[in-house]
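Hi Prof. W.,

I finally got the ATP-dependent DNA helicase RecG prediction working! I wasn't sure whether to trim anything, so I left the full sequence exactly as given:
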Amino acid sequence: MTYNLLFKNLDELKIKGLGKANVSKLNKLNVRTLYDLLYFFPRAYEDRSNSKNISEVLPDEFVVLKGKILKASNNYIKGGRYMYRAWLGDDTGVIELTWFNNRFVQKNIKIGDEMIVYGKAKKGMRMQIVNPEYKNVSVASLLPGNQILPIYSSTSSLKQGDLRKIIHEAILNFGYLLEENLPDELMKKEGLLPRKDAVINVHFPENEQLKQKALRRFMLEEIFLLEMGILQSRFEVDKANKGLYKIENNKELVKQFIRELPYELTRAQKKVIKEIYNELVKGKILNRLIQGDVGSGKTIVSLIMLLYMVENNYQGAIMAPTEILATQHYLGIVDEFNNLNVRVELLTGSVKGKKREKLLKEIEAGLVDIVIGTHALIENDIVFHSLGLIIIDEQHRFGVVQRKLLRDKGELANLIVMSATPIPRSLALTIYGDLDVSVIDELPAGRKQIKTKWIKDQEEKNKMYDFIKEKIREGRQVYVVSPLIEESETLNVKSAESTFEEYSEIFKGMEIALIHGRMKNKDKQEVMEKFRKGNLNILVSTTVIEVGVNVPNATIMVIRDAQRFGLSSLHQLRGRVGRGEYRSYCFLESETINEISEKRLEIMENTIDGFKIAEEDLKLRNSGEIFGTKQSGVSDLLLTDIIKNIKEIKYIRDFVLKYLEENNGHVENEYLKSDVYRKFHDGESLIK
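And this is what came out:
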């Protein structure tokens, strides 16, 4: 099909101005195909419609002026440079035009010429425009039709003018290939520009109104493709698995487990357990996100549901983003299920050889009840006997495709994903469109608020050291986190290695250890186990301990160079303390600061509410950083602000749901189908 020409590499196309050198420059901007080029939208626009009389010109504004050249002169200045000056006048006044080292301007601008000029006015000794663009009125108008010019992200060697010409040529020669990919109903209902018209007006708008209509069309298109890809996958799963299983509803082990817990489940935990239980009893395929703040008890909810499935003759699996977190889960669950005759095994990349072969055979034979691991669980050689429930920890580290790979290993494909990165519920429903959302918005009773302090200078740091020594003498333990493993020549940041040396000197006689991502997994596990058992006073670390690590006796978190971390990471790190009966503290060290960092640290000092922190984080950072990049697809929303455009996201999500229900999950439009496929399969086109 001709549509597939859109996905040809740029070096296979004949476009005026697009030589090998420019292809290479565009490749550096991740523009590799014709489709990429047509969808390489401007990052801003330059409005040249601001035509004024000379007397109306204000400093620092871009203006278009028309007048007569009254006077001109060529002056040589220091360093062999020269300057050409001309004075443009109209009925209202005169303005000075200045060009530096421009050999051609003297030939093109002469006294008496009628000129149109464009540039930024500046106020010095007099009002002037430096290096303006210009056209002789007798030759042509300043702008060929359009007065709103696109400004693209570019490299220093690829000029805006050249890029505009290349994209203009591409639209003229190949714009016809952009067949409509949105449903007629949506187009009519929203009065959207057709795709071909929209691509012209997003790059070279005739006026402001058409520019806005083009931007809105492509904003709704990018949301539509994202939601269609996510919800179509969900629709297929629900349709394929509806009513395929029946649970015997045995609950004795679960009741025993809950009775033996040393605390009462919170109201929020009970509510979420009931939501999940009701779906399982009805034979509905579970597809749920459990969202809750750090320490809200998401893990215990997932354990109860795992135990329920094991009791009803199904296996369970937990997938964690790192080996250290998988191991923490394993050790904790073995302890929790100690008296219940439930077999739990750990399967990570470190489990090799005969031990791995034996474990895989036992999993396939159904001799293992619960398997805990990393992405190793997705590998092809792992076969379950009767996988009934999958728990994925730290949802934002895994994407839709990874979830599907693990789900495909199960007979039932029931799935619970957990996230300690809270976001507003309405936003979660739209971003994680393939998941139902449960929120644990309550902390366990007796959980003490973590006191947070921003350490700004050496005097405060010395007081903090004294405080830490006092708490260690009381038997408590300390985390110290640095953003880097080793010293950097370019960054003025305390590394984990230098911090370890510094703390070893300050806290002589105390047990201190270092842990970071370059260590062998075995060594990391040994250090963490010593810390967990209380054999270490201080653990110096990079962010490998950001999520999941649970040591109730650790009550102090020191975050060095806190300005280097985002709010979400700071909140996650703070959540490693405050997990036991003792009052906990978080110290944020930061002497080098900017406005955004200052806001972050003030927010951290003043609130421990993860949902409030997440909202502030969304304001301060881009969406890809919050939700993960490739995994969520949110980073592809280039024209959509996930906070300001939440209504549009929800509207499109509801439209897609209705569309899929009415069409039984089938997409008739081949171009829509291909674009959705490309989005979720690394740019590969479905149309051949």
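The chain has four domains: 2-45+151-207, 49-142, 252-282+297-419, 451-607. Does that look reasonable to you?

Thanks,
D.
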